[in-house]
Write a structure and sequence with these properties.
The chain is mainly α. The protein has six helices and no strands. The chain starts with a helix and ends with a helix.
Length: about 200
Amino acid sequence: MQHEAHDHTAHTEHAGHADHAGHEGHTGHESHGVQDHTGHGAAHHEGHHEGHHTAHGDGTVSWAMAAKATLHCLTGCAIGEILGMIIGTALGWGNMQTMILAIILAFFFGYALTLRGILAAGVDFRTAFKVALAADTLSIAVMEIIDNGVIALWPGAMDAHLTEPLFWIVLAIALAAAFVITTPVNKWMIGRGKGHAVVHRYHH
């Protein structure tokens, strides 16, 4: 009887030890799972943050994005220049006065198109105006230098009237040249978080 009682006690202790070891293993497994999940979540969040940062500056900018930003400025410039030419011609102004008016209106309409988009995002006018200046000034300036440079250097283009095909042909060539040359400038600026990258922040 004593021998049997002794065996029963040993068996009970052994069973308890086994259960305890299993419990420790289970706890370790849970701890390992939590650690892995936490690490994965942190890594995923960090990777997402870096990817987001790259998309909005310091990263690779697609030519399509740069071309879209350039086309935006080009539209405003084209409207301003044509309107300036029409007004200057109607008032009988000389070439220089008409060109100055066209450049002023090109900047005005270029900024106006950007302002419209930013104001639509709920931004106050003062902030929107500062953003438009930061986004478009260099782009429009480069575009106007190229555009008006082509018109000024093209023989007979400055004296051509709105009703003459030469005026529209040279204007189209000038705007095309401005687009091609300004697009890399916008790509460079957006890749560094400047230019139209500033505008994109208010649309995301």
